[in-house]
Structures are given as structure tokens and as C-alpha cells.
Amino acid sequence: GNLTVPDGLSLTVDPGVVVKFSSGSYGLNIEGTLNVNGTLTQPVTFTAAAPTQLVFTTPQRTVAAGGCSAVLTVESRDGFGNTTTVGAATPVTLAAAPATGFAFFSNSTCTAAAGTPSIAAGASTVSFYVRSPLAGAVTVTASSPGFAPASQSVTVTAGAPATLVFTTPSRSAVAGSCAQVLTVELRDAFDNVATA
Questions:
Q1: What are the pLDDT digits (tens) for 124-169?
Q2: Bigger pLDDT: 47 or 145?
Q3: What's the rounded Cα separation, in Å, for the pair 17 and 13?
Q4: 148: how many CB neighbours lie within 10 A of its CB?
Q5: How far apart are the first and last CA of the chain?
Q6: What DSSP assignment string belongs to the chain?
Q7: How far is CA 134 from CA 6, 70, 112, 187, in A?
Q8: Is the pLDDT of residue 24 over 90?
Q9: E strand or H helix at 72
Q10: pLDDT band at 2 (very low <50, low <70, confident <90, very high)
């Protein structure tokens, strides 16, 4: 369970002490006073618990169809939400829904496929970029065995108008009469509906 310092009582942590939290649901509740007496040469260290979840640390991204997104970063955290490093290289599986046309990259020009990126041993983050030719909302999920997965939305917007497309079927009319309505639509280079 949690360690609680009740109101009216105090807990003193001496110089050089390392306070380690386990990977369970344990915490330190201070209702009274906590005195931490670390020094420059003998600091007191509070460690995070073992990592149990992945979290996106970057905001939701919006990118034009065919463009390379701004960086997306996933971080390992313990059950309390503290950033926690991994003890060994930890592969992170990336998935998109819907997945059609959506791809992950390891560089900011979206020319090197990301494959299955890893959080390096002793680190807590991995970063990647995305690109899709199809406009719409896509849910990106990062997962790894033993970790709660993280999900984030990426919005792909249509690019600049590039072509005009008829959206109505072929029409025929008697000479001199008015034909049924014909409709044209702006599309970007990837055939997404675009606006002027």
C-alpha cells in the first residue's frame, strides 16, 4: 500500500538515501511534513517505479495529404505517470486505423521507413513521423508487450486543388433542350476533395 505521513507528524529523509517505488500501486502521501535533507555531495533520490505504460508527449498532429508530419514522440512512464527509463531496448509497434495509405518514418522528410522503432536501453522516448495521401482522421497506436498502449489522433487534410472532376454521370439531351445538372469538384493531387 501507500506510505502515509499523517497530519501533525513528520518524515525525515537523510542525505544519500534513495527512495525506490515499486511497480505496484504504491505511493507516498504527505499530510504532515516531509523533510528531505539531501546535500550537493549526498543527494536524496526519488526513483520512479518500473515502466508500465506508453504515453504520447506531443500534441495531436495535422498534416496535409502527402506531406510529412511534425515529430510524434512516445514516452515510457510508470503507473503514477512519472517518466521512467527502460532497462533494455524496447521495441514499439506502430499501427494506424484506418491504415490504408498511412506510413511511419524515422526522419523528418519521410524518406526512411520507421519499421519497428525502439526505446533505447536507459532512455524513455522514441520519435517518428507519419505521412498519408488520404484525407481524414487516423488513430495512431503505439504498443509494446508489458506496457499499456498509447493512442493519438492525426488529422490529414486535403492538399491544394490540382484538378477538376465531374461527379455526376454522363448526360444526354435533345439538341436545343437543357441537360440535367452537371457537377464538378475540386480535387488535390491525391484525389481528395479540396476547397478553393
A1: 999 999 999 999 999 999 999 999 999 999 999 999 999 999 999 9
A2: 145
A3: 7
A4: 13
A5: 61
A6: --EEE-TT-EEEE-TT-EEE--SSS--EEESSEEEE---SSS--EEE-----EEEE-SPPEEEETTSPPPPEEEEEE-TTS-B---SS-EE-EEEEES-TT-EEESSTTS-SB--S-EEPTT--EEEEEEE-SS-EEEEEEEE-TTSB-EEEEEEEEP-S--EEEE-SPP----TTSPPPP--EEEE-TTS-B---
A7: 57, 17, 20, 12
A8: no
A9: strand 72-77
A10: confident
pTM: 0.75
Distance, C-alpha 123 to centroid of its chain: 17
CB 141 within 8 A of CB 54: no
Q: All 3 cell numbers of residue 96? A: 494506424
How far apart are the C-alpha atoms of 151 and 94, rounded to whole Å?
10
- Contact between 126 and 94 under an 8 Å Cβ cutoff? The reply is no
